[in-house]
Amino acid sequence: MTVRIEKDGSVWTIIHDRPEARNAMDPKSADALTAAFLEFDADNEASVAVFYGAGSAFCAGWDLKYVSSLNAAYPLGELDIATAGPRGNGGEIPRGPLGPSRLELDKPVIAAIEGPAVAGGMELGLWCDFRVMAEGSYFGVYCRRWGVPLIDGGTVRLPRIVGQGRALEIILTGRKVPAEECLSIGLCEYLTPKGGARAKAEELAREIARFPQVCVRADRRSAIRSHGLTVRDGLIQEWYNGREAVIKDGVAGASRFREGLGRHGDFKRIL
């Protein structure tokens, strides 16, 4: 098994465990990882996922030994968006070469990054909602050396996170981007001592999982879908997206506040 799931109540930690290849992604792992995240998204008891790479690397990218064996005339095969039929979580495109990178889940995923997250591994980290990186970990478009392009969302997501100029500098040079720099430019949100990324990510996941989940998912969905909209169109989609959460979570939550819970910014006593 190259992928396993460890569950702590409504928090799932999805682990890519192929340490002999520094968690480089081959088709078997990509299929298993996609299936694990689809299972998480479909399970009514699951709220937040942590994505972690076992061993000394988050993910060293697409397995280049596998890539070298591809038919140069038709290297992407069944993953080609132009020819493939619908797959994944109901979208019109198949899974990405590195697995879940094309999925659009309705629940949050936190990346816990130890060691290298390079090339497609960086793209998997960018796919997550936000990132916890340990000291000594790093991003980088290391595939720049071999002529393998970013095809798991890197050119789409990186500019949205850090801005176009900085993203292009990182993409075109292929250089190493250490965790400390990632924190300073907004490429990760938390920095931990080495070995601490998973524990911090799971702590954050448990905190998010405590909240009313209809509201959590509505706000997450609205923040993602508003990208590229005008302010007016964004406000309209926010309103229609949030109505269900007000009905299912908001009224009951306001009643708990009226009864004395959560006063003065107390996040501990909310239920």
Written overview of the protein:
The protein folds into two domains: 3-209, Alpha-Beta Complex (2-enoyl-CoA Hydratase, Chain A, domain 1); 213-265. It has nine helices and nine strands. A hairpin with a 2-residue loop joins strand 1 (3-8) and strand 2. Helix 3 packs across helix 4 (154-162), helix 4 (154-162) packs across helix 5 and helix 8 (213-225) packs antiparallel against helix 9. The strands form two sheets. Strands 1-2-3-4-6-9 form a six-stranded mixed beta sheet, sandwiched between helices. Strands 5-7-8 form a three-stranded mixed beta sheet. It is an alpha/beta fold and 271 residues long.
Gist?
This protein has 271 residues and is of the alpha/beta class.
CATH topology of the largest domain: 2-enoyl-CoA Hydratase, Chain A, domain 1
| Molecular shape | globular
The low-pLDDT segments are: 84-88
CATH homologous superfamily grouping of the largest domain:
2-enoyl-CoA Hydratase, Chain A, domain 1
Calculate the mean pLDDT score and round it: 88
Structural class, from helix and strand content? Answer: alpha/beta
Helix-residue proportion: 25-40%
Give the strand order of the largest sheet, numbering strands 1, 2, ... along the chain.
Answer: 1-2-3-4-6-9
Using only CA atoms, what is the Rg?
19 Å
Element-by-element helix/strand order: EEHEHEEHEEHHEHEHHH
Write down the domain tally.
2
Question: What is the CA–CA distance across the termini?
Answer: 39 Å
Continuous helix count: 9
